[in-house]
């Protein structure tokens, strides 16, 4: 999904450039004149358009066709605490984009969940067979009711993950993120464990060894 978002941004920049080329042309696109019935050349805007259609647009349409039908999308939701996906399938991907101050519940079992560019967003889900990804977000809360093998946190500030008894073997993968906490159920309540943000790496004679760094007071 991150690749798709980057592709859309590149596409928008390319279209803007195409509009500039068209505006700079003194003749209609493609009207380059003819000599003995042969077109002398191709207008810059036409050439740019051809490259765009054969490159990024074709890639975007290909990816869109691949994703169509299997992606449940929630975008730009604000101040909503009643968002629910109740009819789910094993192959389904839930993509949450730019939502804020909202809560989403996903029932059943899905393939994966992606939270992208969200703030003050809470997610509650039953089961995920693949991965839950949090990207470019801030102040996220996730509660696992069933099982999930992997949760990935990338470029995110503030992420609290409540694991269920069945999800204690979940792997947490993080990069370029801060204020991450994993809450483990104990005696009817949750105990909070911070995810390390600082690491030290040392050479042991044969390889590099990296481990969490202890902050000295």
TrEMBL record:
Q: Which Gene3D superfamilies match?
A: 2.160.20.70
Question: What is this protein's record name?
Answer: Cyclase associated actin cytoskeleton regulatory protein 2
Task: Show where the C-CAP/cofactor C-like domain sits.
Answer: 44-195
- Which GO-annotated molecular functions does the record name? actin binding; adenylate cyclase binding
> What is the similarity comment for this entry?
Belongs to the CAP family.
Q: Name one GO cellular component term.
A: cytoplasm
Which InterPro entries does the UniProt record give? Adenylate_cyclase-assoc_CAP (IPR001837), Adenylate_cyclase-assoc_CAP_C (IPR013912), C-CAP_CF_C-like (IPR017901), CAP/MinC_C (IPR016098), CAP_C_sf (IPR036223), CAP_CS_C (IPR028417), CAP_CS_N (IPR018106), CARP_motif (IPR006599)
Q: What is the top-level taxon of the source organism?
A: Eukaryota
Biological-process GO terms, alphabetical:
actin filament organization; cAMP-mediated signaling; cell morphogenesis
């Amino acid at each position: 999904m991150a690749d798709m978002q980057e592709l859309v941004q590149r596409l928008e920049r390319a279209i803007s450039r195409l509009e500039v080329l068209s505006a700079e042309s003194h003749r209609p696109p493609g009207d380059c004149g003819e000599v003995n019935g042969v077109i002398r050349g191709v207008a810059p805007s036409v050439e740019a358009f051809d490259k765009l259609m054969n490159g990024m647009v074709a890639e975007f349409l290909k990816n869109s066709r691949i994703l169509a039908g299997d992606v449940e999308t929630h975008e730009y939701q604000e101040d909503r605490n009643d968002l629910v996906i109740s009819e789910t399938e094993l192959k389904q991907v839930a993509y949450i984009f730019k939502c804020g101050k909202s809560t989403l519940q996903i029932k059943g079992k899905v393939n994966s969940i992606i939270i992208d560019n969200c703030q003050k967003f809470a997610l509650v889900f039953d089961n995920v067979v693949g991965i839950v990804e949090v990207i470019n977000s801030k102040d996220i809360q996730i509660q696992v009711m069933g099982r999930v093998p992997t949760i990935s946190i990338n470029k995110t500030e503030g992420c609290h993950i409540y694991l269920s008894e069945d999800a204690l073997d979940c792997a947490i993968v993080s990069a370029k993120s801060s204020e991450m906490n994993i809450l483990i159920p104990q005696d009817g309540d949750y105990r909070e464990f911070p995810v390390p943000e600082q690491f030290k790496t040392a050479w042991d004679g044969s390889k590099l060894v990296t481990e969490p760094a202890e902050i000295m007071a």
